[in-house]
Amino acid sequence: MSYRNLDIYKIAFELFLKTHKASFLLPKYELFELGSQLRRSSDSIITNIVEGYGRSIYKNDYIRFLVYCHASNDETINHLEKLIILYPDFSNEFESLRNEYNILGGKINVYKKWVKENWNENKQ
Fold first, then answer.
1. Which of 41, 64, 84, 95 would be a feasible disulfide site paired with 75, CB 3.0-4.6 Å?
2. At what angle are helices 34-54 and 7-23 packed, to 10 degrees?
3. Domain with 92 in it: what CATH number?
4. Number of domains in the chain
C-alpha cells in the first residue's frame, strides 16, 4: 500500500494540477500575491498527505498531518472565495474548484476519522 492508492491523494493531486493552471488566469500583478498563496496551499494538501503517510507507523503523527492537510484544504477554499469576488470574469473556474475542494474536505475528514478509529500502529 502507498499514499498513491489513497482517494484523497489522487483527488488532491488532480485538483492541484487544475488549481495551478487556473491561477495563471489571474492578472500578472496577482500571480505572486493571492495566486502564489493559492498554489502553495493547494500543494500543501498533497504534501501533508505524503509526509503523514511516511510517518504513519506513528498513528498520532499521521493524524496530525491529516489535520494539517484538512487545514490547507480550508485555506485553499478561502483563497478561492476571495478570488471569486475579486475576479468575477474567472468566477466560474474558481467556483468549480471551490466546489471540488469542499468535497475533498469532506473526504479528508472521513479518512481522518477512520484513521483515528481504526489505524493500528503495528499492522497498517
1. 41
2. 160
3. 1.20.1440.60
4. 1
